[in-house]
Amino acid sequence: MSKFNRRQFLHRSAAGAGSLMAVTALGGLPAFAQDRQIRHFWWGNPERDKRTFAVIELFNQKNPGIVVTGETLGFADYFTKLTTQIAGGNMPDVIQQGYGVLFEYINNGAVVPLDDYVGKTLDISKIDQSAIDAGTVDGKFYALSIGANSHMAMFNTRLFEEAGIVPGEDFDPYGYTYDELSEFAAAIKEATGVPGTDDNTADYQNFSDFIAQKGVVMWDADGTYGATQEIVEEYWSIWERIRDAGGTPPAQETASLAGVAELSQTGVVTGKSAMTYLWSNQLVGVQGLMEDKLGVAMYPNTAEMIPGSIVQPSQFVCLTRDSVDPEAATTYMSAFVNDIEMTQILGLERGIPSQSDVRAALQPELTEVEALSVEFFDKIQGKTAPLGPPPPSGANEVEQTFERLAVAVLLKERTIPEVAADFMQQAQAILARA
After folding, report:
1. pLDDT score of 22 more than 80
2. Under 8 Å between Cβ of 391 and 370
3. Where is the signal peptide (predicted)?
């Protein structure tokens, strides 16, 4: 087996990130019959894909007899492909999952418990208990946390400086209001010609924070939805005021990006806005797409300053019901979160590691942007909401419905109260049949 050929193939595959790709052993030739074949599927971006393929190569070198292959798609296409694989009974052995959809995949039997492998092929002895709890549903452990994550506003420091907006003086990045955002976003547009913020009218992540900021639990343990028509109307009205004040890109432009998750299309990367709202683990990937230096902040808040953001696992790795070799698959999963060499390659791109030894080993090697991510986590302590139950089946469709109907608000096709009433009616119907 030629290391040169395999590495060469890995690098060629990683260069094509963004479309479905698979890394096979022996530069594309069939593996030896005795090799145990494992497939790992994740949603990615160029930075994540490069790191993950390098980890797969290292694992294969360190574990003769097990050959892991990697498959990746952009977030927008990942779950569509996974749904097809579930229907066809050919899911990869290991898949990436998010907390927001975990319950749905447990409920439909797509992922299976890991309890039988703990202490054998799967080591969770150094994993934070909070991360284990987040991956446990109805007393069974289903999901191995890759790292901790939270909502993060990322801003172009050059544009803020050019507008004379100084974080920490003109606004508190860890406690500013929507009214303050409206003011400095408009000021940035006036000074630089670039709108100061993305328009989050169709951003369900921001809306989920807003629900908590109104003192409401988004999902109760029984799956009851906490949003009300009044909350939806207030949220959309806030962003309408920010938009009307000139702080966001044109509504038509924002509407065309509703539901788009590619980092390369975000306003802070394309230069169409000075501030974008994402997950904290995406900071490394976004900075990699930019020359200007990024700064970070929490999401905006209401005047009452009730915490809205949560700290949750950025992603999990899960074992699927279609795994051909669960022991080999969980051996790989265990190394993915525990092996120091492998985790040094992964860094913080998927979030703050949940394994204590890994965090300690990474600390001296952090890049500037990774250190900024750790600093952000330090500063949000005590300012986040409790982690609620995993969303129920149908929650993902509710999110998609919110994004779709928000376009009508942006384009002023109907009034905010009309669209909010429509959303609540459709959301309740989705949850009733899920």
Report:
1. no
2. no
3. 1-33
